[in-house]
Amino acid sequence: MVAEARTRASAVWAALAEIADPEIPAISLVDLGVIRGVAFEMVPPGAERLRVELMPTFVGCPAIEVMRQRIGERLAGLADEVTVELTFAEPWTSDRITPAGREALRSSGFAPPVTIGSTFSGDSLMVLPIATCPYCASRNTTLENPFGPTLCRAIYHCADCRQPFEAFKPV
What we know:
Elements: H1 2-16, H2 29-32, E1 35-43, E2 47-54, H3 64-75, E3 81-86, H4 99-107, E4 110-111, E5 141-145, E6 153-158, E7 164-168
Parallel strand pairs: 2-3, 4-7
Antiparallel strand pairs: 1-2, 5-6, 6-7
């Protein structure tokens, strides 16, 4: 029974890994780290619910409803009912982006955020770090605008290859 539960949970995670982020299709929701957890629950009268916890990158993320819809559609049929709940039990941080996700961002022209780590206090969020250019790997970059097309991104410029690029803000 435990092995069956693990197999079912693995199938859910594999299905979630196929769902692209609505704003950056190069990265999946799993690799972006916005899926906090999944659980199967029994609900009266004998039905099974699949609950997915979704952690938005920002409270006002405009893609939340699209993500909820895509998750519900993709997981339909894996349980009698699928619910996608927003959770703020812990804040999403850019450290949740997987190594594969960081590479997917880089290969599609986005500079992944620096890894903050567990010693980060939050005080240095006021200053955005130098971003590594996703095109030439130069650190000779400058922040052009801290406000990118979404709340979680900023616009940078590389002085070496002269390319503008977006970078995820470390959170």
